[in-house]
TrEMBL record:
It comes from Streptacidiphilus monticola. The chain crosses the membrane at residues 27-48. Keywords: Membrane, Transmembrane, Transmembrane helix. It comes from the Bacteria. It holds the Pfam family DUF4307. This is DUF4307 domain-containing protein.
Amino acid sequence: MTTTTEGVRPPADRYGRARSAPGRGRVVYLAVVGVFLALIAVIGYLYVSRSTVSGEVVSFHAVSDTQMDIRISVSKDAGRSASCTVRSRAEDGSEVGRTTVTLAPGSGDVTTVVHLRTTARGTTGELVGCS
């Protein structure tokens, strides 16, 4: 004897309403999340790509126990000002001096010497960053 359950429905009040298959709601949700993530990616790219200031230490020289001369080279847009932070460290790695210099708008590539006052003899000159 074969039993078929085709066409037989359970009582509606016993099992609740039948659920529909995932469809339009899920697709709309995934589309909104995808557009949001794409927007975040575009904003992040634009923010990072606008930062066109870069620099490097060309040389450094300990003038005395209280002064370090640091020569930096900075590349920036010609019409834009930039600020760069430099520091010096002692032999034990402790920071003995730090300052921020501002480079006025003008030429794109600038090389300058920063005269940094230190609290002890510095053994290294570092460019922390430019913006």
